[in-house]
Amino acid sequence: DVINTSSSNSTGFSWEVNGSGFTYAGTSEDINVDFPNSTAFYTTCLTVTTDNQCADSICKVIEVKDEFLIYTPNAFTPDGDGINDVFIPVINGIVADDYDFMVFNRWGEQIFHSQVPNVGWDGLYKNQIVQEDVYVWKLNVKSSIDNSQKEFKGHVTLLK
Q1: Rounded to an integer, what distance in angstroms lies between the CA atom of residue 93 and that of residue 141?
Q2: Beta partners for residue 56, in sequence order
Q3: Is residue 91 exposed (0-12), middle (13-18) or buried (19+ Cβ within 10 Å)?
Q4: Measured distance CA(120)–CA(88) in Å, rounded
């Protein structure tokens, strides 16, 4: 939502929002804009008029930031059927160069490691499919939203 905070004597409103190939025009007092890009800058201008036809304008640049999200499945089936064959966190809003994903067996031995966000674990360790079991994972990432370091831990069940 973009909120108008002009004087209560205002009677006419003209909004223009431009950026990243997107344009919006509206005449409501306040506007609700669905921005098409999750991260972009938009120049937002409001012209307000009164009954006496006095007009004033203001323009501001609004930065729309992406949202940090993470989802990790709790099971996967690396059976080669093309469905759910790889265990990989589904993430949004991270710094790709600051990604560290690890999987451990029940004895704490690291059996998978990736520093590339779109590379997941296929259930192999030393070129052999591991046994059906519960495995622990750890993910360290940096948020592109606020540049904070985040650490996540969990478990995943490998089913055959």
Answers
A1: 10
A2: 48
A3: buried
A4: 4
CA atoms within 13 A on the CB side of 119: 11
DSSP string, 52-118: T--EEEEEEEEEEPP--EEE--SEE--SSSSSS-SB--EEESEEEEEEEEEEE-TTS-EEEEE-STT
For 92-122, how does the pLDDT look when each residue is reduced to its tens digit (9 = 90+)? 989 999 999 999 999 999 999 999 999 999 9
Angle at 112 between CA 111 and CA 114, to 5 degrees: 160
What's this model's pTM, rounded to 2 decimal places? 0.66
